[in-house]
Amino acid sequence: MKLVMFGPPGAGKGTQAKMLVEHYKIPQISTGDLFRENLSRQTSLGLKAKAYMDKGELVPDDVTIAMIKERIAQPDCKKGFILDGFPRTLPQAKELDKLMKIDKVVNVTSKDETIIKRLSSRWLCRKCGAIFGIDIPPKKKGICDKCGGELYQRDDDKPEAVKNRLKVYYENTHPLIEYYEKKKLLFTVDGEQPIDVVFEKIKMAIEK
Ligand code: AMP
């Protein structure tokens, strides 16, 4: 099963991707996570991506596509995977089409005001990547419920970067909705519903 999780930043696609990983036992491939991992290891790829990420801009297509190609070629992707945050531009989508046939594109939607509220209250676990926020607050402030790791806030979740990320989403990524609609691959779900309701709807659409 090859899925694409699509939607604006903060709509909940990462949270849903993590739930799908547990359910279907296939890996989540988040380009944002891959860039952040590279940055924490200070690789040349990470350093190249940093300037764009800090401003909420997209990393250039050639860099992003090369990174995803390498990741998808790993043995754990043989049974399928969930792409989270890729593709984000038309050239990326076309490149993905050249590589393989996607089974479904799940478009998780949300209002801009909800997104800004969610991202400014989002906390991530440094150790396991779990996501906390308004909808799922951690039981203990600053500590991950799942592994006890330290929780942190992303620099690009600050209001100015979030506003730019939304603008970039509408300009570059939103047009892909029409691209996948034409291919009859798109399933749209309202990401403002309770997390479990969104998850059930996604599962039903995948298994239909
Ligand atoms: P995310 O964690 O998905 O919100 O991504 C964080 C940042 O990584 C984005 O704001 C971009 O700077 C960069 N990024 C992630 N995925 C892509 C992509 N598919 N194309 C270009 N840049 C990306």
Spell out the blueprint of helices and strands.
Blueprint: E1 2-6, H1 13-24, E2 28-30, H2 31-40, H3 44-55, H4 61-72, E3 81-84, H5 90-99, E4 104-109, H6 112-120, E5 123-125, E6 131-132, E7 151-152, H7 159-173, H8 176-182, E8 186-190, H9 195-207
Parallel strand pairs: 1-3, 1-4, 2-3, 4-8
Antiparallel strand pairs: 5-6, 5-7
Helix pairs in contact: 1-9, 2-3, 4-5, 6-7
Bound molecules: adenosine monophosphate (AMP).
Adenosine monophosphate binds at residues 9, 31-32, 35, 52-53, 56-59, 64, 85-86, 88, 92, 156, 165.
Looking at this protein, list some descriptive labels.
208 residues; alpha/beta; Rossmann fold; five-stranded parallel β-sheet; three-stranded antiparallel β-sheet; 9 helices; 8 strands; binds adenosine monophosphate
Explain the overall architecture.
The chain is α/β, with parallel strands linked by helices and 208 residues long. The protein has a single domain, classed as P-loop containing nucleotide triphosphate hydrolases (Rossmann fold, 3-Layer(aba) Sandwich). Helices cover 48% and strands 14% of the residues. It has nine helices and eight strands. It has helices spanning 13-24, 31-40, 44-55, 61-72, 90-99, 112-120, 159-173, 176-182, 195-207; strands at residues 2-6, 28-30, 81-84, 104-109, 123-125, 131-132, 151-152, 186-190. A five-stranded parallel sheet has the order 2-3-1-4-8, with helices on both faces. Strands 6-5-7 form a three-stranded antiparallel sheet, with no helix packed on it. Strand 5 (123-125) and strand 6 (131-132) form a beta hairpin. Helix 2 packs across helix 3 and helix 6 (112-120) packs across helix 7 (159-173). The longest helix is centred in the last third of the chain and has 15 residues, at 159-173. The chain is globular. The two termini are 13 Å apart. The model has no long low-confidence stretch (mean pLDDT 95). Bound molecules: adenosine monophosphate. Adenosine monophosphate is lined by residues 9, 31-32, 35, 52-53, 56-59, 64, 85-86, 88, 92, 156, 165.
